[in-house]
Amino acid sequence: MPLMWKKQDFIALVVGLLLMWILPQIIGTHTLTILVVYAMLGLSLGLIWGFGGILCFGQAAFFGLGAYTYAVAAINIGESTFPMLLAIAVPSLFAALMGAMMFYGRLTDVYLGVITLVVTLILFKFVNSTAGPQYVIGEARLGGFNGIPGFPTLNIPGMPEEYIWGDALFYVCAVALLVVYFFVTWLLRTSFGRVAIGIRENETRISLMGYDVRARKTILFTIGAAIAGLAGGFFANWGEIVTPRLFSLGQSAEIIIWCIVGGLGTRFGPIIGAAGLAYLKFLLGQQTMIDNTLITGLILVLFVLFLPKGIVPAVSTLWQISFARRGGRKHRNRRTNRNVGNANG
Amino acid sequence: MDLLFVILVEVLYAIASLALVSAGLAVVFGMMKVINLAHGEFMMMGGYATIVSVNLGVNVFVAMLIIAPLVVGLIGLVVERLIIRHLYGRLVDTMLATWGLSLFFIGVATMIFGNTTTSITTPITGFAVGDYQINGYNFFIIFVSIILLIGMYALLKATRLGLIARGTMQQSDIAAALGYSPDRIYMATFFCGSALSGFAGAILAPLVGLVPTSGGAYIAKAFITVIAGGPSLIAGLISSSSLFGLVNQIFTFSISPVFGEVALLVAAVILLRLLPQGVTGKFFKGKM
Fold first, then answer.
1. Residues of chain A neighbouring B268 (CB-CB closer than 8 A)
2. Which of A232, A250, A337, A338 is most deeply packed, by most CB within 10 A?
3. What is the least distance, in Å, from the CA of A129 to any CA of chain B?
């Protein structure tokens, strides 16, 4: 399958590079780095939920797993290249096992949500209780509630002394986000991606056409987890500490909120939702008058009630109504998996 | 022998508290098919309602058994009118909206009560069994849960109100054709469900200190108990809370409380994998 570049991809690339140049002059790169990492995390759920119809309540599990894997491996190995690869591999493997268990058991919507939620909770509880000195992986103590501080951060591959930090870390993360974005774009244009969207729209129809729905869902789930794991690895590098909070319910909730607010079934939506809301949270964190959680909750409720499609689809619909030619693309951003459920819940 | 008795009480207590924690959610999810992720926060508010009224000088049992359910039930009513009623039949949307609500309530509670732990003393004293000390309040919780389950069963099975409610949940258009307003029945059911959540929170409040985020400790447990219980309300509640309570206590006694919690969650995952329709979906089809 060729790469199939389209006009809009060049626009996306140019906009991405422009943003990489402009944004550091407005917002500090330290803040920007975390926004980029969150955007990548948002995209990971946006891929499996928005295009695969798999509502995963535990994307934080893969994020946290990636971060912890990186931290533990970096302490043991002493450099960053191999730990970064492990940060992708371990969550993928975990997701493959979990996904196989769930999808081959033909679990759907609510049950899927519950299982992913519960698995995240198990990880949270387990990691939280590893304070004792007996919980050691190699030379790395898991540290329980306090997490793991002081691991070697990102360095240029092959040169363990050349650390990448500050502005450079931002550019690495931003380029990684671009790469992931184009990977997702490419994936969705392959036949695999188109079948995934077909599964989202009507699982029975696709399986009647002879595709192995379970295997494809598992693979998509695994890819999403790999991206989340990569984001986790970058997060560990940014924060220079990993704590059990990465696995918390609050973290899982936030990822879902990003996707809802940004818009499902789009690639930009989760990215914009994640970066925008994380920045809003950062701004809100600087004042003490109104509680942060209150606003996040209110945003989620209001979006579910009034703008259930999210910002990006709403804006693009508005755009099409006002400027572009009618018809043809009306169904592109259709939201699914939201009105089903009553039948088998 | 004494130890055996203590373990027995602990197991019964674990089962009873699971049933208590899940009862409100079972009504809201089991009957109305609304996944209330703010269930834990309803419990948290029940706890706060109790503590505040006790501090104002109200008798602790009055506060727990009457004030807390009423307060939380009314909050639930407002929530139903403002949000939930627009989302009936949209399972995932109710899940997300109530998740937003739960965050909202945590924020409100943090602004009112601050991030500190508040608590009241247990109103029932403990007693000794041989070398062991048993918390007398545990018996109270076991007693309350049994009464609660019998009460729910009686209300749903033996009264006209329960019949109408069950009928509406199965076929709301038929109920409407018979002259009952489904809208009002949904409203009333949600009121009952949230009142039950507030009640559970109030009963458990003296045992654990309350912080605005303490609802999170219950939601997952309640959720998996109800889901694993399956479609029939009371039988599901009893069977799954017995199973999980037992698993929890076995691992708590033999390894550690954390392992007890983890074992409970692992058991839930395995159970759901084996019986995706829950325990009662497989074994007690069509019963209450």
1. 114, 118
2. A232
3. 7
